[in-house]
Specification:
Blueprint lengths: L13 E2 L21 H9 L1 E4 L5 H12 L17 H7 L2 H11 L3 E7 L24 E7 L10 E3 L8 E2 L1 H5 L4 H5 L10 H20 L4 E2 L7 E5 L4 E3 L11 E8 L7 E4 L5 E4 L7
Helix pairs in contact: 2-3
Amino acid sequence: MDNPGPDVTFADISDYPPDEVVPWLDRADVDESTLTPHQLEWRRDGVVTLRGFIPDELTEPYIKVRAAETNPAAWMTPSSYMHILEMRDLALYPPMMAVMKSLLGEALILQMCLTAWVSSERDWHQDDYLNPHFVNSWYTAVWIALGDIHPDSGPFEYIPGSHRWPLMRGEKVRRFLTEEELARRSPETGVNHWPRFAERFTTPAVAAEIAARGGEVVPFLGKKGDVLIWHSRLMHRGSLPKIPWMERRTLIAHYSAAAKRPDMIPARDQNGELYAVFDQQLVG
């Protein structure tokens, strides 16, 4: 939007959730001597990197289906995984799910996939503020590289350790939006657009917080089969590509702890993992 946003600070739109409501690795009283290397990396940086983790036998069937779509964004439906078996096979790969379960301590439910093969160009944000208030970081996401990621393509970037910063809250962000902005939905998918309108003030508020804390920007330049798992409070972005529309092959998938989402209807696929069921048609 062209109109300037209100003078909003990061403190205005965030808070620290109490220890008793967040996942175990986010709590203050953790005996780090008992943790695995992945758990230590998660606790320290808010990410876990798995190099060469996904075999070609799993990536290639999905790449074939995805490559047949001419739209750079592929499917706009957030729950496109419901309609595409090859996507579910990839996003619910049991060894990857096991790593995420070891980080959150709960079984997970797949709830969204992003299928674009170009950078989202979405500026700095956390993911958890898009969830209901009660989720409280029982949420994670993965970035699966389906090809070698070129530094000019607008790679995923993040701020290590920013998952220990306050948690952005959707209800605090929405206080600064108009009724029209709160009501606007995509005519194709029905998805609410309020987060996009909120970027006029969330983006500068987060940028100021990063600068004040001296946050280090780290790109994820994955190779085919690499996976980055990130914390829902991690500050991250899809950076601007140096070459507009340069291909950046990936599948991005988001998950909640199943026990923390009574608002979702679960189903199981053939691998025994959970995915959420929504009343959404596949929109290309």
